[in-house]
Amino acid sequence: MFKEGEGGCVERLLVPAKRVLKSGPQIRYESFERRVELWNQIRMNFDRYLEEECGTFLPDLDLHFRSQFDAALVALAASMKTNGEVFGAARMFSEDEIELYERIECYSIFEILSEKDIRKKLFQRDKETLRLLRDYYIEMDTWVDRSLERSEIRLTIRGYLKKRWDGYKRKINAAVADAVTELDWLGNLIGTWEDEARKRENAIELDLVAENEDRARKLREREEALRFQEREVARREEAAQDALKSASKREEDLNSREKRIEAAMKALHGSNRDERSRYVDTGEAKQYELTFIGRMETKIGVCPVIGGRTFRVEGSEEMEEPVVPERGGRSMQRPLPLNRSLTFRLVEKKLLGEKKHYVFSARYVCRIERYADQGYDCDPLSLTEVTAILDETWNRARSSGIPTVLCLASPTGFERRLRDFVDSEEFHRNFISKHLSFLLLDMEAGALLFNHADETARAFAAICELEIDSEKEAKVRRNVKNLMLEALKVRDHVVFDDVLKACTDDPGMVKRAFYDCAAKMEGEVQFVEGVGLVMMGL
Amino acid sequence: MEYLLIVDYGSDAERKRIDYTIERWGGRAEVSKPKGTAIIFEGPMIDEFLEDLYSRIEGDKEKIAVYRIEDYHPEVEERVRRLRYESNEDLDVIEKFLTYLMSRIGAGYEYTSGGVKYYSISTKKGQAFIEIALKSGAATMVTITVRGYGEVVDFLANKINEEMEVFLRGG
Fold first, then answer.
1. ipTM of the predicted structure?
2. Which residues 19-58 of A are in CB contact (within 8 Å) with B?
3. Domain formed by B79-168, architecture
4. Are B87 and B95 contacting, i.e. CB atoms less than 8 angstroms apart?
5. How close B131 comes to chain A (CA, Å)?
6. Does residue A437 sit in helix, strand or coil?
7. In whole angstroms, what is the distance from residue A314 CA to residue A359 CA?
8. A30, A249, A392, B73: which could form a disulfide with A34 (CB 3.0–4.6 Å)?
9. Delimiting residues of CATH 3.30.310.80 domain(s) in chain B
């Protein structure tokens, strides 16, 4: 019968368990101390059995033995619960396991009653027997069947209790089947109970269906929420990646920008500071030209008043430089400045006495080839370039014999050497020509340079000056100055584009203020490739 | 300073013991079980959550008390008492006595590991664990360790010690 195990050994180990099982729920009447002792013996013996002290057994037999150990323990746990005793070790059984044991053991009376005894009790309409039968028909049978299927209840306990329950059922069914043939009322009573059981069953099923539907709905909602969360997480991850990329790109750009500025600063220390001190793109250069020529036409008009004298325009001439050969197609994409010039012959309006004659030449000068080629210029007009124009104009003035006033406008301004020279005392004293007076107009900075000792130049200054809204200009300048000072707290340079981004004013005015503030702060403005204009603190 | 404790109990009996503890402490501190539901919110959008919550409750917002919580690491450590005895009695005799003693004090056998028997016990003074190690040689060495929190440790250790001394004296 046994595979290897020793039956006698198991029987010895099972003694305390069997002792408990024999008592059933009545074990509760033993003292607590005694039940603890039994518990400890059963647990120790169970350990010894599991450690194969008695060898191994076929699975069915093994389950049978283990069921007896566990059933005895659950019986003790139930007794402690019933008595309200605190016994921590009994926590090894769940409330459900104890409840299943207790409810089935309520029918333990059928253990000692024979079928004949039960039949007799039915004939006597014994209340307790009828109560147990009612519970049996209405819910107990179904409830036990369901509980025995529950995997969270130990298999050993289910195995033991199933045998017990099957035994009770057999007896009950046999006794009832016999009695019902003679007792009509019992048949009717059982019919009523069975109806009630069916109704309960249906209600439970409906509840179950509703519960399942509810669970399925909640599951769907949870899945949907999960999907939404997943999408959201993916979206956030993507956004975080993008932000990271964008941040690293910004950092790279910033590093690259800083490096370029650093290189430009190094280069600046050992080179001509005028070089690359401006930045004017083709569009701006063209705009300045149109502004300059347009203003000169308007200001001269028909009868200009110059130095308190009224003149009339005897004749005028407009010239422009021939278009430079196209390179890289840039001139096709945007209109280039043409270095236009306007020449007016002015004669004083006067009836008597000698009339004053002037040739007023308003000339816009820029390096057209650079605008055509690279799309911008960043160098002010040099002394050499200006001298060549002055020389040419002076020669023409000298040969015509008419005093000539030249207003030379440059979009990139004039190099420092030239500005210092024109502003010098020496120049003021010496450069007074009866043939030529000249004024230099920096279109971008709005500065007008001329020899203040030269009366003719002084008289024409009002015509050549740019009209600037000084109040607005001062406001923009204040704003730009503050931004530049803020930037200088962090680093030793100010990038024009950063200032421009922080301002809402006209970009032309901002640029003018930037140049002006840079000069006042004794900083050097440089054009840095890929960065734009930068003021560097020296 | 107020503290919020969250106790995840596993059975009705455990819940009752917790209630009883709260009751016992009533005279020594302001201890109460909050009514309603306790919510733990983690994240930066607490104000938005509260705004939503206020819009759902009936009556004024006094119903909701909000506290900022932080972990608290209590300076409470498990207490351990070790009782050591040396006896000329046979190991079997001592083992039988200890099994009897454990049953007498209501300690439930849990398991054996490495020759040490582990018991758990619940008393009115709290719960504890008892470890029993026996070693035979020229004399039998007995080590009984009681672990737990609070007065139950001394209570049990003293009780076991008394019984052991009577037994070892030849009672």
1. 0.72
2. 32-34, 36-37, 39-41, 43-44, 47
3. 2-Layer Sandwich (3.30)
4. no
5. 14
6. strand
7. 10
8. A30
9. 79-168
